Amino acid sequence: MDKSSGTVGVFTAADVAVFSVMLAVSVGIGVYSSYLELRYRSRALRQVITGALLINICIYMSFCLYAPSLALATVTNLSTSASILIVGTICTFYITIGGVRAVVYNDVPQTVLMFLGVLIVVLLVCKETVGAAEVWEAAGEGSRLEFFNMDPSPYVRHTFFSTIVLGAFVMLYWVGVSQAPHQRFISVSTLPTAQG
Hints:
Layout (H helix, E strand, L loop, with lengths): L12 H12 L7 H9 L2 H33 L4 H49 L3 H10 L18 H18 L1 H9 L3 H5 L1
Helix pairs in contact: 2-3, 3-4, 4-5, 6-7
């Protein structure tokens, strides 16, 4: 128990602020679990957090590896297992040779390509049908158009409030306490270097 604050292993707003500051300024601690061990003086807490992060990242990476492998297996005669091995080997080689900086420098072109791909698909669909108005009308008939649903019920899917609240927590986790963006941020020495 921390006698000065009266808390027993409870994350405070100050902890979240420190996590966020650690993203902007590297204080020589490479991982958040190191901070938690220093803050709460508990090696067991560090091991539990490290285990939880490892389980989380293993599940996340399995999805990230499976999706492109399934796409590769679909367009070729490779089995899914072989395509997983091929994609995994290519990604491992790429990150080993180029490091995290190579990943950071490729994020922007990949994002631009994804948005362009979605835009091209939308334009092609509108061109193949009568036009954008018919696509919009079909989306409306299928109950796919729902803007600013202000229902406060947590049982209704995709309301304004549930999206904002969930989005805030997801972004707080991803940018504030997740190890992956922290590693990306500290791998680039200065802001001008990160901007290219």
